[in-house]
Amino acid sequence: MPRGGPDASCLDRLLQTDRPEYLDRTDVDPAVKRSVVDALDWTGRVFGNHRQFGHLVLDEIADVPDPKVLELGAGHGALSAVILEGHPTAHVTVTDVEPDSVAAMAAGELGSHPRALVREMDATAVDAPDGHFALAVFALSFHHLPPATAAAVLAEGTRVADKLLIIDLPRPPAPLHVLRLATMLPLAPFIPFVHDGVISSLRSYSPSALRALAEHAGVDIELRGGLLSPQIAVAVRR
Ligand SMILES: C[S@@+](CC[C@H](N)C(=O)[O-])C[C@H]1O[C@@H](n2cnc3c(N)ncnc32)[C@H](O)[C@@H]1O
């Protein structure tokens, strides 16, 4: 299925790639990957993404007493830190598939937080019993996965949690997408964060793609945002 969904236009079908981001590769200097994660953390602080995403999570668990939250693909862990600060009784399991990121989070404040557990975990094969968490959240990460594994995350996230909150880059209509790419491309060969940003944009899923993936995974999905704001999807098991 194209990233633009089953009904994607011809132009939209051209605006995608199978090329991996630096973050997905095993053949790049770990310092390059670290620079991308650090840049994500920095931009999240400066532009308020961590706070905005934290509020989305806190809204979803507002009515759950002592909620258990699972963050998948946490990278730097800043979102989990906001959740822990904003909810006095939430327990957060902070995870990523990348061992270096997990080690860095474990060595930081999250590693010694009494309500946080830092673990290595693949979002497609979560090591937890059914319904263990009130909420699983996967922020700015879903586009990393090709359709088959993305559908596996929808199934796994809704198996271990009552709700799976996906927050990701919006996929704009194709002409706008060309403009977005044109502003980024000149810097992509020089700045790893922009390189990964271009690939992320090309791999972002449209609303119709998200609906098709949810159907394939057998879960219900509700979509919000998109276009000029992050694409938000809340998935629940049927
Ligand atoms: C662009 S970063 C997002 C980091 C952070 N969530 C944020 O919002 O800035 C994508 C993260 O997804 C992680 N990731 C990629 N594939 C994954 C998988 N199968 N399971 C768990 N994490 C994965 C990467 O290691 C990386 O840390």
UniProtKB/TrEMBL annotation:
Single GO MF descriptor: methyltransferase activity
Taxonomy, superkingdom: Bacteria
Keyword Metal-binding attached: no
A GO BP annotation: methylation
Keywords linked to the UniProt accession: Methyltransferase, Transferase
CDD domains, A to Z: AdoMet_MTases
Limits of the Methyltransferase domain: 69-160
Protein name: Class I SAM-dependent methyltransferase
Lineage, broadest ranks: Bacteria, Bacillati, Actinomycetota, Actinomycetes, Mycobacteriales
